[in-house]
Amino acid sequence: MRTDGKRGRNTRGTSIAGCILCFLCLLCSSPSFAQGVLSDPKFKSAEQFVENDHDRFVREIIQLTEIEAPPFKEQKRGKAFAAMLKQYGLSDVTIDAEGNVIGVRKGTANGPLIAIAGHLDTVFPEGTNVKVRREGTRLYAPGVGDDTRALAVLLEIIRAMDAAKIQTPGDILFIGNVGEEGPGDLRGMKYLFEKGPYKDKIKMFISLDPFGAGNDVTNAGIGSKRFKVTFRGPGGHSFGSFGLVNPAYALGDAIVKLSKMQVPSRPRTTYNVGVVGGGTSVNSIPYEAWMDVDIRSEAREELTKAVDAFTRLMHESADEENRARSTSQGRIEVEVKLIGDRPFGQTAMNSPIVQTASAVIQGFGMNPTYGMSSTDSNIPMSLGIPAITLESGGNGGRNHTLDEWIDVEKGPSVRGIEIAMGILLSLSGIQ
Amino acid sequence: MRTDGKRGRNTRGTSIAGCILCFLCLLCSSPSFAQGVLSDPKFKSAEQFVENDHDRFVREIIQLTEIEAPPFKEQKRGKAFAAMLKQYGLSDVTIDAEGNVIGVRKGTANGPLIAIAGHLDTVFPEGTNVKVRREGTRLYAPGVGDDTRALAVLLEIIRAMDAAKIQTPGDILFIGNVGEEGPGDLRGMKYLFEKGPYKDKIKMFISLDPFGAGNDVTNAGIGSKRFKVTFRGPGGHSFGSFGLVNPAYALGDAIVKLSKMQVPSRPRTTYNVGVVGGGTSVNSIPYEAWMDVDIRSEAREELTKAVDAFTRLMHESADEENRARSTSQGRIEVEVKLIGDRPFGQTAMNSPIVQTASAVIQGFGMNPTYGMSSTDSNIPMSLGIPAITLESGGNGGRNHTLDEWIDVEKGPSVRGIEIAMGILLSLSGIQ
User: Fold this and answer.
1) Coil/strand/helix, residue A5
2) Which residue does chain A place closest to B269, by CA atoms?
3) Is residue B19 predicted with pLDDT exceeding 60?
4) Taking the alpha carbons of B40, B170, B101, B216 in that order, is the dihedral positive or negative?
5) B242 vs chain A: nearest CA distance in angstroms?
6) Could you say which DSSP state residue B135 is in?
7) Taking the model in full, what pTM does it have?
8) Of B268, B276, B401, the CB nearest to A236
């Protein structure tokens, strides 16, 4: 567990209670405890339920996928998910001020509060066709695997625990959260861990995101910074003012410069131009042109270097356009505005949560792999709260594109659900 | 008058009537006839009215400017303008199937049908603040001078003719037309001259567009071609799929290549990137990125050369992006789609309409200048119908930008209205 300044402040007032919780947590979450849970008859019964219930699970993926959930517009899907949490018996189902849907499965004692979440939002704008097309065991639809499958996994785990009469010492929060993608900038998690009623209460966090076999554990959060770069100029008539500076030309040059920016492959460092826009009519020189840029790195210093280089390039492009054409009616100005900032974070390899996840994955006969990514877990990790991001099961591909698909072939699909359930229950303990 | 194939076909069946009309037209429209009109007491009386009525004229500019009229959404302004045409006594006020507002001022005999028009549409999208800000004699607002002032000039001419009891032998059409700007692609004129009820009936056409002293006569229509260039690719996750081809990078490269394209300054040839767009979220590689491009030239062969060079550059940019990054998930494809095509056209310098306009301008003590442009007159010109585009009077600047302004200082403003009225009545004759 990290003990950086922020986390220290958060727990200072509850140090004795914290120690007891940590001890209980360590006790429950040891790898050997994980083996015990996996062989528990109740867990076996829950697994059997998941297998028998798979058709309903697939129906619920489709049902939720077909409710569009663009960034900042997750309400409709959120309401449907809240209704399902209630239907499956969770208590205190709420939609918090940020839009996160949270249901509580009550524990029997004072075990640590664990939260498990999938994100409601997709990257796709309003009006995207989200109708699911099924071909054999494949489901095709924008958002079907990133991250709608995870929402259905949460519902399946709740039903299986109920069917197998599994009780846990502590409460478990089942969460469909907002704002994981793009401009959301992890707003759901920032609210949950930094402002909302569960602030300082969640002791462990699991994010399921996105599809995948189930053996990968993301235990480090890649930092990312996101920018809106806007070039502004005087505009003008396309014919009458030909020869004046054009912000679209500065933007084009900036895109080209960025596309040639050198970044290391280790530590993996990336950039992306994700959205471009600007201008009002074909026969006018635009008065502004802009792009949204995402820069990420596995290493803090590489991120800083890449951001510095990128910022320099943006100003160079504005300067070059001002040299290339007439500034008689005004110059090109550039604004580089930070629109997203995902903190770095890490959950130690030898922490109980990572060790337990590894043991469960091995218990399913698979080799765990470990990775860095930029997910909802970045926020708890950055606050020193043990957090991991797991795959939600099954195969899939092309997420963030209109061709996104998942395979719900029963074997791998069920195993993914069982691994997530196994890790959750090994962390919480079962009764 | 041009006698190319199309015009030949249109008039073949009415050649004798056509000859008589041409004769009448020539008779009325000679420069000496223009001098007679300008010194006619009724015309003097109309001029006096324009001078006295200037405050109302300015109020009507403001009133019409503050009704937004984006491309393809001119209806609201069109309805208001139609109501004003009715209010000032025109008959047969209609809004045709394309959206053009047309009112008829009936003639007393069978003189040639003359049309005078300003365009309803602006380049500005819905939601643009169109509130007029007045500073001294200057009015600031998007669209105030291009072309809203012209609409108010039409209303002023109608009122002045009525006040001075001026009758004309032929009918005059007063038109507020749609689709002059950008994507409108002259749809108002194309409908008026090629499809609507006045097809083949209008014998002379005057467009007022935009503001300006009033001594400039556009008697040649610059050809322009407009394109939507769309780069499409496989898309992907910004981090997970880093290294795949990105259509935004191809777009950036295409913009840079275009911005360096060599075009002659004589005959004036221009290009413009007017609108750019694409992508769905900052953390996704876009599956498409696009731009709208305007290419114009005073010379047909230069336009063809520029379009060919531009098209080649677009394909080069797609190819270069496919070489620069991985195409493992799919290649960048480019589509170059023609979205606008304004025909070339010319009204001969020695034609009665140009000669009459020149004489009237000289009658106001000014030196006429002659130009080429891309205006509503391109359509009648391309059909061989005598057409000119005149300035609507007054000073102004920065059209097609949010800083657009006109000066309604009384002297130059009134003179512009009087010149337009003088040219119209010299062409029609007065009784």
Assistant:
1) helix
2) A239
3) no
4) negative
5) 6
6) E
7) 0.74
8) B401
